[in-house]
Amino acid sequence: MDLTQFSEKEKHDRAKKMMLWFGIVSLIMGFAGWTSAYIVSSSREDWIQGLELPQSFYISTAIIILSSFTYIIAKKASENDKSKQATMWLLVTLVLGVIFIVLQFFGFQEMLGNGYYFTGPTSNIKMSYVFLIAAVHIVHVVAGLISLLVVLYNQMKGKYSSKESLGISLGATFWHFLDLLWVYLILFMTFVK
């Protein structure tokens, strides 16, 4: 493919998309490493069998799935030049993202209340992995919220429309990736005992 046939804007947009996908692939590799280590460690004698994850982790899963749908609605509204609707749905997505994080911390509190700690004499390798995997995902959701705030700001400034939607599309792609990643992680931690 001859890249000289593209305008500077098209080249710039393609570069942004590639950077996002490089980031996503690197995150996939990182989480693949942690889940592989989880599987290898599950053969240890001190591995807790039959441990139930906190209920708030499952509720937060429903919340983050819902937030992907609200992001889709926001993106469609923006692409249809319905700016106020797009802004409203982006705000709903932001609130749902914050609720997801709050519920994750409720899950941490539940685990601590049950005597499971990330580290220390009363810690367990399985729970350390659960804490680690969930906490690293939260860090990435915070990055997703920052990205969402940028998208929301640009939406309110009128930068997105039926003619220009790259920013909201990139933000939505990252958000949907975080959603799918959490669904994978919760299913993994639920079924890989």
In brief:
With 193 residues, this protein is an all-alpha fold. The chain is 77% helix and 0% strand.
Output mean pLDDT: 92
Strand content: under 5%
Shape: elongated
**Separation of the first and last Cα atoms:** 48 Å
DSSP strand count: 0
What share of residues is helical? over 70%
Give the uncertain stretches in residue-range form.
none
Number of helices: 5
The arrangement of helices and strands along the chain is HHHHH
Tell me the structural class.
Answer: mainly alpha
Rg over alpha carbons? 19 Å
For the largest beta-sheet, the strand count, sense and barrel status come to:
none
Detailed description of the structure:
With 193 residues, this protein is mainly α. The protein is built from 5 helices and no strands. It has helices spanning 8-41, 55-79, 83-113, 125-156, 166-191. Helix 2 (55-79) runs antiparallel to helix 5 (166-191), helix 3 runs antiparallel to helix 4 and helix 4 (125-156) runs antiparallel to helix 5 (166-191). The N and C termini lie far apart (48 Å).
SSE inventory with pairings:
Layout: H1 8-41, H2 55-79, H3 83-113, H4 125-156, H5 166-191
Helix pairs in contact: 1-4, 1-5, 2-3, 2-5, 3-4, 4-5
What descriptors fit this protein?
single chain; 193 residues; mainly alpha; 5 helices; 77% helix; elongated
